[in-house]
Structure formats: structure tokens, C-alpha cells
Amino acid sequence: MNNINDSYDLFVFLKNKNLLENSPEFWWPSYGTFETFIGAILTQNTKWTNVEKSLENLHKHDLVSLEKIANVDLLLFTQLITPSGFKNQKSKRLKQLCQNVIEDFDNFESFQNEVSREWLLEQKGIGPESADAILCYACKQEEFVVDSYANRLLKKFGYEFESYEDLKSWLEFGINENLDKITRFYEFDISLNQIYCRLHGKIVEFMKNKHDID
Ligand code: EA1
């Protein structure tokens, strides 16, 4: 049985398993782009493979842009995102969300640089997990994404957290306290954002592939 005292131990535990061998550098495909913003909403309560189908449909109709979705025909949009489930709710909320981004930030680049967690949490259909996914993977900010995979993995190690924020703080603290040691694992200058991206990705891949901890 592995002894995990903090998220640095978790990092070391996952680091040697080569979980991201076939993944992009920041794990999430299309990292840092508008597509990731849509993906973060579409992936709510559904499998990633379903999200990929919806994104493919949107690409085929050349709709992967903030301005285009803000003005999209709602019926067509709903139809295109059907594979990822909750289609009526997600299409309405995503279209509104894009309109709000334009209203408050003008364009996606300003949104990436200026958006706050508070702004995101005020939006209909965005909870803490989606907010952090957007901040971390679409806006390249230093926010760790907590999801059910992280909760389930840490439960295997004997941890239970009372809230989303508790687990997020636990994950961020052990990394921030051991940054020197962590960066030495990499042969390039890795940013804190990328460390968060990759550790979250490793947690997801580890759990998705049904690995066990011993
Ligand atoms: N799973 C494999 C995922 C991925 N990229 N690659 C995923 N799940 C949620 N995701 C978001 C992004």
C-alpha cells in the first residue's frame, strides 16, 4: 500500500506510470483555445468520447468560434451537440455564455486574460469544476481542476474531503510547497499551470483506465 501524505506524493506516485505518453503536452487537446471553452461545458455529465463527436460536428459546420456560437441558429446548434447529452440545456447555456463573454470582454483573447473565477461562477450552467477547467485549460491560469476522478482516487488512499474547495486546496498546496522538486523531474522549464494540467490529466487517465493503487 502506498502512503500518500500530500499531493506531492500523489504526483510522484503517478509520475512514473507514463500515463500521458500518448497525450498532448498540456493533456487537454486544443489547450488554450476557444474549443476548450466549449469542451469544458459539453463534457459535463458525459464521456469525453461523446464530446469529441459534438466538437467534430461543430468543426464540420465551421462553428468553433465565439462570435459564431453567440449568433448560431439554436435548433441547428442543439442538433450538432446532441452526442454529448443534455442538448437543449447545453445549447441554450453555451449560446448565452458566448453572448455574455462578448458583452463583458469583447473577444475571447481578452476573456482569457481578464476573466475571474467569480465571473464564471455567476454564469448559468457553470459550477466550480467547469470554472476551473475553463481557467486552467482554456485560459492557462493556475487553477487546479477537481473532478469525481480525483475524489475517487483519493478515497482509495483513505482521504475524504468535505468540499470541492477543500480538495482543490489540498491538491494545490502539496504542489506549490514542492515546486523545486517537481520542476527537477522535467527537462524543460515547466510552468505551474502545466504542472496542474498534467497532474489532473494523469489522475483522469489513471482512473479511466481502471488502474489500481497497489
Ligand atoms: N479524456 C481524454 C479527456 C481528454 N481531454 N482526453 C477529457 N475528459 C474531460 N478531457 C476533458 C480532455
Textual characterization of the structure:
- The protein has 214 residues and is mostly helical.
- It contains 13 helices and no strands.
- The protein has helices at residues 7-15, 34-42, 48-60, 66-70, 74-80, 87-105, 108-114, 117-121, 128-138, 148-156, 164-176, 179-183, 192-208.
- Helix 2 crosses helix 3 (48-60), helix 2 packs antiparallel against helix 9 (128-138) and helix 6 crosses helix 7 (108-114).
- It starts with 6 loop residues before the first helix and ends in a 6-residue tail after the last helix.
- It binds 3H-imidazo[2,1-I]purine.
- 3H-imidazo[2,1-I]purine (EA1) is lined by residues 28-29, 43, 48, 204.
Layout of helices and strands:
Blueprint: H1 7-15, H2 34-42, H3 48-60, H4 66-70, H5 74-80, H6 87-105, H7 108-114, H8 117-121, H9 128-138, H10 148-156, H11 164-176, H12 179-183, H13 192-208
Helix pairs in contact: 1-11, 2-3, 2-9, 5-6, 6-7, 10-13
The chain binds 3H-imidazo[2,1-I]purine.
Radius of gyration: 18 Å
Strand content: under 5%
Query: pLDDT under 50 segments (min length 5)?
Result: none
Give the overall shape, derived from the CA principal axes. Answer: globular
Terminal CA distance reads: 6 Å
Largest sheet: none
Classify the helix fraction into a percent range.
55-70%
Going by helix content, strand content and strand pairing, the class is mainly alpha
Q: Please provide the ordered H/E string of secondary-structure elements.
A: HHHHHHHHHHHHH
Mean pLDDT: 97
- List bound small molecules: 3H-imidazo[2,1-I]purine
With helices defined by DSSP (H or I, 4 residues minimum), what is the helix count?
13
**How many individual β-strands?**
0
Oligomeric status: single chain
